[in-house]
Amino acid sequence: AVLDKVASLKVDKIVSCGDFVGYNPYPSEVVKWAMDARIKAVKGNHDAGVVGELSLDWFNWMAQEAVIWTQGRLDHAALRWLRELPTEFELEEAP
The whole model's pTM is what? Predict the structure, then answer.
């Protein structure tokens, strides 16, 4: 429903504060959508955990399970995309 609404609004840019994974049962589909839509995003802590850049000790037990579960559901392209997300960026000023 959200994606349909975004499409109907004809937005020209979507910005994400990260965590494409860790909070949904479709991590592969979410990452593929974000890749295809060329989302401007930063890497969230769950994204970093899935690609091994953040120790699982940092997460509570449920988040640890989600990270491990998610790792088994993403292909190499999705993992590479998450790994390459920046940790910060600047938005240009609106005209």
Answer: 0.89
